[in-house]
Amino acid sequence: MAEIKRIATRQAYGETLAKLGAEYPGLVVMDADLSKSTKTDLFQKAFPERHINCGIAESNMMAAAAGIALTGKIVFASTFAMFAAGRAFEQVRTSIGYTHANVKIGATHAGLSVGEDGATHQCCEDIALMRTIPGMTVISPADAVEARAAVRAAAAYKGPVYLRFGRLPVPVVFNEGDYVFTIGKGYPLREGHDVTLAATGLMVEQALVAADLLAGEGIHARVLDIPTIKPIDDDLLAAAARETGAIVTAEEHNIIGGLGGAVCESVSASCPVPVLRVGVEDTFGRSGPALEVLRYYGLTAEHLVEKAKAAIALKTR
Amino acid sequence: MEEQRRAELAQKALQIRKYVIEEVYAAQSGHPGGSLSIADVVAYLYFHELHIDPSRPDWEDRDRFVLSKGHCVPAVYAALAMKGFFPVDWLRGFRHIDSPLQGHPNMLDVAGLDMSTGSLGQGISAACGMALSAKIFGKAYRTYAILGDGELEEGEVWEAAMFAAHYKLDNLVAFVDFNGLQIDGCVEDVMSPLPIAGKFREFGWHVLEIGAHDFDAIDAAYTLAKTVQDKPTIIVARSVKGKGVSFMEDMAAWHGTAPNKEQYEQAMKELGEAQAKLEAGY
């Protein structure tokens, strides 16, 4: 088997921003003293006059981003997910959300895979927080290819978007050449009729591995990649619920309020079926190498296999 | 400032005060105290200073105005109506369910508003963004903001203060409505932001201290601000909360209370008499 290429989605974010700078003369990037970590330094090198370092002051950054955007510009405001969605929640909600400002929140270091920094920096609440803001689009790319496409789509879209990126290099699962991204669309990656594995972010790769493991046992799992958590692809989920009868969600986020919550809300209104959620089970993270932390909290293909079987057992038909 | 111009602005300010009382009375809700204390500077900005055009509220090169103390929007709604951004009879709908005039300003509902505010501290940050955008993209418009003195207790204001000085936003003028009172009492007793001028000076702003109800001083301050280079300007203006209505003046209780019928009539009578007196004097 060929060596799997690993790229962090934050890297794809920074590289794409640097390209977009030339395509959008009215594009401004803001950061809060984390330019090297969020990778907005790549934009800074190319377009220093349009890169604004706000210092360690995320609240001001978000409201100032709204101010710039409301003069007719596109702003990408970046910091770690914890500080973008958490610390500056109300600035995002009121100054960006309420005004429907054209601000893209490029949040990096989301989820447990921050690793050694531990719970203070492992944001597993951001999808839930951002999803509750009216008019906010929430995107969580699975790999570098999807991340690049999502950043481009966000720049072309008029209105606030929350983009969730990771620190950890993750396998590239999509082909750059044939990958097409549309905001609000989910993508079937594997066909199957026994159960659906709906995953987002770095859990998409685990869902594919889980599907292989299940196939070895004669269980055919459908795998869905759900990059846009809001607005979620209701039609795709309804079809999956109808055709497979059970769903397991997978995310690097609290099982409350994230993808799992969004899928439950969606299918409960269209085609109620058992939904089991794999994610962080309403607890805080802890320090450790990223892959060990993910394993510690059960964010593995093996755990997905276990949940898939449990979900199938819950089917009534 | 010419005497005639000063008298005109004083009339505008009295009219704004009357509308403030009408709005809050009709809503039986709202913030009369702070709206009355900023009436003079709002009159000055809308009828003398701001380059805006009611027929083109989205004009790209217009001056920007952000009411960071969003709860005092009755004064701004009054000015916008008087400028012709929307019909004056909308004012009676303030805070009503079917009205675009929300309790705190919503820029998507009302032409002429440049920002939605109400959560204290955020407006000044947004104003910084507007001013910085002009710097980056070579625009000549200026950005104006009004803050409350109690609002200075919000940490975000000081993040914005650093930001504006760091990026040398000399196209930004902030005005602090220093009436000394907030909901729970005197700002000095609740959580003192004093000395206001000294703090901003140390943060790298050009600081001017004036009386908030003196049009000559307001005019001199905004005129001087245009000559300041490489620094944002802040005008710390000592004001009287509830200014213009005898029983509301200097009373924290009138921060967020609506007048009853008797109080409404008394307030309108006082303001009407002030208008008549001004008219006669002029």
From TrEMBL, chain A:
Residues 7-172 form the Transketolase-like pyrimidine-binding domain. It comes from the Bacteria. Its cofactor is thiamine diphosphate. Keywords: Thiamine pyrophosphate. InterPro entries: PDH/Transketolase, THDP-binding, Transketo_C/PFOR_II, Transketolase-like_Pyr-bd, Transketolase_C. Belongs to the transketolase family. This is Transketolase central region.
From TrEMBL, chain B:
Transmembrane segments: none annotated. The keyword DNA-binding does not apply. Its cofactor is thiamine diphosphate. It comes from the Bacteria. Keywords: Metal-binding, Thiamine pyrophosphate, Transferase. GO terms for molecular function: metal ion binding; transferase activity. Residues 14-273 form the Transketolase N-terminal domain. InterPro entries: THDP-binding, Transketolase_CS, Transketolase_N. Signal peptide: none annotated. Belongs to the transketolase family. This is Transketolase domain-containing protein. It comes from Ethanoligenens harbinense (strain DSM 18485 / JCM 12961 / CGMCC 1.5033 / YUAN-3). The lineage of its organism: Bacteria, Bacillati, Bacillota, Clostridia, Eubacteriales.
